[in-house]
Amino acid sequence: MAGAAGGASGGYPDRVPGDAETGTGAGTGTVAAATVVLLRDGAEGPEVLLLRRNSAMTFGGMWVFPGGRVDPGDRDPTWPDDEVTTASRAAVREAREEAGLEIDVATLVPFSHWMPPRQAPLRFSTWFFLAPAPAASVLIDGHEIHENRWFRPADAIARRDGGEIELAPPTWVTLWALRSTPDVQSAMDQAHTETAEHFETRLVQTDEGPVALWHGDEGYVDGDATRPGPRHRLWMSTAGWHYERA
Questions:
Q1: How many CA atoms lie less than 13 Å away from 102 in the CB half-sphere?
Q2: Which residue in 52, 64, 213, 240 has the fewest CB atoms around it within 10 Å?
């Protein structure tokens, strides 16, 4: 197993370390990773597969999409330098290893790309793909993955707010983006027509708690979350998480 499946979901620290703690404020390295958001039509709307990581491992206890580090064997000999092709093959392999599901790589559609904050000790450069789930039972190993469950995106968000499950910000934002999708085909059709969005996170501390800032936010460049103007951020206060995008 490639490990760090949660790396495909990019857990963030709950506070912002200063330069004295990190040396330069930057992480120590970047690792290529991939994850796949598997969708199926449920009785009350589309559902996504989430897996709960072993609490003793990286991103322990979090509910994540199947995914992990890119391995050297994931490179297509025909397109060895194609980052997206390599990531898609890694996502297929991870779905097999973590969930026992065989996914046709041709069904994967790039959905987004994520880079964690600079202060993360190890930065996972992660491609997120959408794919329809195969009609097969999920099989987990009980070691790296302890539980699996199909969630309606809005229900997973509500359970996080209720303290029932733990989600990383990229997972949360992905669920938020899918919360109003009427069915799997609509989600796939929309992903086919849109360019995958790139998120490079800037994490800042405010009086209300940590805030993740992304492109288009007025405070993104200098990390000033109080600066008036356009917003693209996730507020992560103890009172609840709130995605703000103008």
A1: 1
A2: 240
Q: Rg (Cα) of the chain, in Å, rounded?
A: 17
**Residue 123, CA atoms < 13 Å, CB-side half-sphere:** 19
The whole-angstrom separation of Cα 97 and Cα 100 is 6
Mind listing the pLDDT tens digit for each residue in 96-107? 999 999 999 999
User: SS3 for 203?
Assistant: strand
The three-class DSSP label of residue 144 is coil
Provide the b/e sequence for 14-52 (b: ≥16 CB within 10 Å): eebbeeeebeeeebeeeebbbbbbbbeeeeebbbbbbbb
94: Cα separation from own chain's centroid: 14
**Any idea which residue has 């392999």 for tokens?**
93
How far apart CA 49 and CA 31 sit, in angstroms, is 24
Regions of the chain where pLDDT drops below 50 = 1-27
165 closest CA partner among 156, 173, 174: 156
Alpha carbon 206 to its chain centroid, in Å, reads 23
Q: What is the pLDDT of residue 6?
A: 37
> pTM, whole model, 2 decimals?
0.87
Domain ranges of the chain: 5-200, 201-246
3-state secondary structure of 8: helix
